[in-house]
């Protein structure tokens, strides 16, 4: 059966494999090879029989074909109400068809299914909350991605991303040494401003074990320094693990469930090794979803919880502000129109709808915060979730998808968008690049640092 | 014909419907898997139960959810049809008399004739809107297949034949027989078609309710604002 050298059914499991794939500029050869990748129908059907149980089958069966989910999907709205973007249609014409045909689908069908699964759905799960039958199409797309991944029909970046997790336990080629070096180097950079600033590595029994997004180590190292500064000023006993420090999971976007398990196991091992009281993850949405919400299930934890209590960065920030561990100088609060991007991954899908708003009550001058409409668990996806941001092959579709968020932001009149999620942050940055609506965007860490009252004993000696 | 339909065929279709749905309910919950669905159902039964109940009852209240409020006309048509589709077969006085005769018991109360008439007309008008919607709106048309029309036809038939009998248009006994036959077709269709939603609606909503009640916010003490 024809399998490409780059595009095939085998996961990438070595550093060389990753280098080879990366050398193929934007996956040109990879996608070329995909056009003749054969479908293993027997495997497909067997997998479905083993893993597609009554929840999904009932959803597909009882769908009333009523179309009530149409308006709930930002991609339907962004594409001028193209009926082909109705959630129920998207899933019935892909996963529904595969099941109906008992897995006997051809290459062309799978290529199309790949586009629908990664470029017509970000797994934001909004439609699931608008369907009278409680049919969550986003979940079904997550499932479909797993089937497509197994057959090798997965966007190039996703294949690489999943491979990274398999090889490095991180979404990028960053080794433990690289990571700790970067963190230490960044902390040194800021030592003069914050005397005593350190990064405690592998400290056992700390109060907090901090985990990050590998992008921070690679592209935004200031973020690491900012995290250290905030823990330092708050007087926290914290640590970073040298292994198991990555919170994210491109494997989840890719549908590579085995890699998902490897990834979260590495973090859970760190928890078990270091026995922190709590794990706190950085300002990332999908990463929180992967490691805290879905991860326990991949790892086979019946309790549905990670080994130690794990919270999102905004939960810690809200708590630190509430308890006075961090104090804001009221004179420095934000005094321009500002709005908030609710991340689907921890707001709709983990109930944290008030947390960021509590933080905002401390850091924004009253009267300057304008909520988007709709908001909280009904907020629209930023437009780039579920891996969409990262897939060059579907860039055009992604840019169209940004329109809904653009209009939501414009309607608030805000000049600044607070975005405590890496993916949303990226999408909003790209949105400004593509549509130039004149906004700034920011994580919380840099905003808070600018307005902190630093306790006397932590200030640098005056010269 | 009449005695056949009110005799063996009646018992058969009622039996198939009830047993069929018991089996399907059992299969549904038996097929839920904490690891595949990624919801720790068994670990948090109380939270799961509360989440399930909320997810069902919110959606049974007209305009009780964001979803219903986002589609006011659809919501009206849905409730207009479904109130009739659920209450009329169960509580119509004629049905209760029939039940008493056949099974020896009748259900809690009877709808008075004017109420029953209202409900029937509202249901028929609502059905008309549901059909219109299906013909006109592109986002519904793209989803519609032949089976959907079949289901609508099957669901509509007992109403229409019942009304024709009620108002004695033409041959009463013919319409009555047709009404019983089409009603029995609905009963037989329930376990095997999309009409299974009559029961599986509760299963599916309960499942998503457990998901939100446990995993997606429940453990954080946050209740989904449906
Ligand atoms: C407790 C009972 C029931 C519940 C909770 C329920 C729920 C629902 C829901 C949520 C929908 C999707 C929304 C819509 O398309 O209107 C629906 C559709 C539908 N239901 Fe029911 N249903 C029930 C009983 C029945 C019964 C008894 C019948 C028929 C005899 C019926 C016939 C239909 C039909 C034909 C549709 C599709 C309407 C269309 O084509 O747009 N339902 N039901
Ligand atoms: S709202 Fe639900 S039942 Fe209606 S078409 Fe969409 S998925 Fe199907
Ligand atoms: S999960 Fe989100 S993106 Fe996907 S179909 Fe539903 S609403 Fe659209
Ligand atoms: S990137 Fe943000 S808004 Fe978009 S799907 Fe992810 S969490 Fe949701």
As for the number of domains of chain B, it is: 1
Number of domains of chain A: 3
Shape of chain B: globular
What's the total count of β strands of chain A? 7
| Structural class by secondary-structure content of chain A | mainly alpha
**Series of secondary-structure elements of chain A, N-terminal to C-terminal:** HHHHHHHHHHEHHEHHEHEHEHHHEHEH
CATH topology of chain B: Fumarate Reductase Cytochrome B subunit
Helix-residue proportion of chain A: 40-55%
Beta strand % of chain A: under 5%
Radius of gyration of chain A: 22 Å
Outline type of chain A: globular
Query: Terminal Cα separation of chain A, in Å?
Result: 74 Å
On the 0 to 100 scale, the average pLDDT of chain A is: 96
Counting DSSP H or I runs of 4 or more residues, the number of helices of chain A is 21
Figure out the total of helices of chain B. Answer: 12
Oligomer: heterodimer
Poorly predicted spans of chain B: none
Structure at a glance:
Chain A folds into three domains: 39-154, no CATH class; 169-311, no CATH class; 330-450, 3-Layer(aba) Sandwich (Rossmann fold), CATH 3.40.50.
Q: Could you describe the 3D structure shown?
A:
The complex is a heterodimer of chains A (463) and B (226). Chain A has 463 residues and is mainly alpha-helical. Helix content of chain A is 48%, strand content 5%. Chain A has helices at residues 15-23, 28-34, 41-51, 54-62, 74-78, 87-100, 107-119, 137-150, 156-168, 176-190, 214-218, 221-234, 250-254, 257-274, 285-298, 313-322, 355-363, 395-401, 403-412, 422-435, 444-450; strands at 208-211, 238-239, 278-281, 309-312, 338-340, 416-418, 440-442. In chain A, the strands form two sheets. Chain A has a four-stranded parallel β-sheet. A three-stranded parallel β-sheet of chain A has the order 5-6-7. Chain B is mainly α and 226 residues long. Chain B has one domain: Fumarate Reductase Cytochrome B subunit. Helix content of chain B is 75%, strand content 0%. Chain B has twelve helices and no strands. In chain B, helix 6 packs across helix 7 (93-103) and helix 6 crosses helix 8. The relative contact order of chain B is 0.17. The chains are: A mainly alpha (463), B mainly alpha (226). The complex binds protoporphyrin IX containing FE and iron/sulfur cluster (3 copies). Protoporphyrin IX containing FE (HEM) sits between chains B (78, 82, 85-86, 130, 134, 148, 151-152, 155, 186, 197-198, 201) and A (64, 66, 132-133). Residues 63-69, 87-88, 131, 133, 135 of chain A line the site of one iron/sulfur cluster.
């Amino acid at each position: 059966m024809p399998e490409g050298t780059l595009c095939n059914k085998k996961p990438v499991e070595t550093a060389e494999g990753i280098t080879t794939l990366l050398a193929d500029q934007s996956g040109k050869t990879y996608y070329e090879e995909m056009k003749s990748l054969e479908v293993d129908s027997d495997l497909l059907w067997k997998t479905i029989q083993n893993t597609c149980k009554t929840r999904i089958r009932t959803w597909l069966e009882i769908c009333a074909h009523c179309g009530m989910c149409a308006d709930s999907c930002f991609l339907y709205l962004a594409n001028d109400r193209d009926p082909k973007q109705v959630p129920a249609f998207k899933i019935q014409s892909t996963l529904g068809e595969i099941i109906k045909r008992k897995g006997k689908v051809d290459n062309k069908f799978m290529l199309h299914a790949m586009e629908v699964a990664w470029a017509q759905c970000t797994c934001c799960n909004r439609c699931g909350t608008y369907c009278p039958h409680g049919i969550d199409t986003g979940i079904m797309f997550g499932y479909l991605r797993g089937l497509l991944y197994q057959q090798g029909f997965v966007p190039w970046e996703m294949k690489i991303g999943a491979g990274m997790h398999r090889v490095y336990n991180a979404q990028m080629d960053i080794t433990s040494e690289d990571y700790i070096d970067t963190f230490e180097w960044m902390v040194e950079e800021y030592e003069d401003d914050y005397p005593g600033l350190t990064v405690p590595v592998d400290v056992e029994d700390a109060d907090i074990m901090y985990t990050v997004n590998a992008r921070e180590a690679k592209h935004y190292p200031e973020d690491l320094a900012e995290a250290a500064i905030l823990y330092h000023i708050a007087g926290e006993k914290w640590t970073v693990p040298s292994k198991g420090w990555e919170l994210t999971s491109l494997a989840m976007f890719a549908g590579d469930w085995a890699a998902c398990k490897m990834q979260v196991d590495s973090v859970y091992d760190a928890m078990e090794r270091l026995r922190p009281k709590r794990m706190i993850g950085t300002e990332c949405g999908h990463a929180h979803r992967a490691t805290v919400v879905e991860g326990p299930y991949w790892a086979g934890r019946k309790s549905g919880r990670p080994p130690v209590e794990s919270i999102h960065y905004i939960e810690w920030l809200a708590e630190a502000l509430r308890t006075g561990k961090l104090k804001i100088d009221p004179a420095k609060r934000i005094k321009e129109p500002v709005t908030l991007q609710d991340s689907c991954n921890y707001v709709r899908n983990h109930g944290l709808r008030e947390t960021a708003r509590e933080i905002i009550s401390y850091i924004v001058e009253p009267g300057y915060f304008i909520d988007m409409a709709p908001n909280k668990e009904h907020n629209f996806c930023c437009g780039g979730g579920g891996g969409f941001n990262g897939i060059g092959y579907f860039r055009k579709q992604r840019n169209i998808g940004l329109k809904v968020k653009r209009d939501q932001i414009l309607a608030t009149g805000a000049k600044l968008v607070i975005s405590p999620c890496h993916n949303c942050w990226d999408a909003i940055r790209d949105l400004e690049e593509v549509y130039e609506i004149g906004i700034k965007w920011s994580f919380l860490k840099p905003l808070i640092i600018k307005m902190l009252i630093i306790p006397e004993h932590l200030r640098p000696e005056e010269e | 014909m009449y005695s056949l339909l009110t005799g063996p065929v009646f018992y058969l279709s009622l039996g198939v419907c009830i047993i069929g749905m018991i089996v399907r309910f059992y299969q549904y919950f038996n097929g839920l898997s904490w690891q595949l669905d990624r919801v720790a159902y068994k670990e948090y039964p109380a939270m799961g139960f509360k989440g399930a109940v909320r997810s069902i009852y919110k959606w049974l209240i007209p305009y009780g959810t964001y979803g219903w409020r986002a589609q006011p006309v659809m919501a009206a048509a849905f409730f207009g049809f479904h109130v009739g589709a659920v209450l009329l077969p169960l509580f119509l006085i004629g049905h209760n008399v029939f039940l008493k005769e056949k099974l020896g018991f009748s259900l809690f109360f009877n709808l008075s004739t004017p109420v029953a008439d209202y409900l029937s007309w509202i249901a028929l008008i609502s059905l008309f809107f549901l059909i219109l919607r299906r013909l006109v709106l592109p986002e519904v048309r793209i989803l519609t297949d032949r089976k959907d029309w079949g289901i609508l036809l099957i669901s509509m038939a007992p109403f229409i034949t019942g009304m024709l009998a009620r108002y004695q248009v033409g041959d009463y006994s013919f319409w009555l027989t047709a009404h019983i036959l089409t009603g029995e077709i609905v009963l037989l269709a329930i376990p095997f078609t999309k009409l299974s939603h009559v029961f599986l609606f509760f299963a599916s909503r309960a499942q998503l309710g457990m998901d939100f009640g446990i995993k997606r916010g429940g453990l954080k003490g946050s209740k989904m604002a449906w």
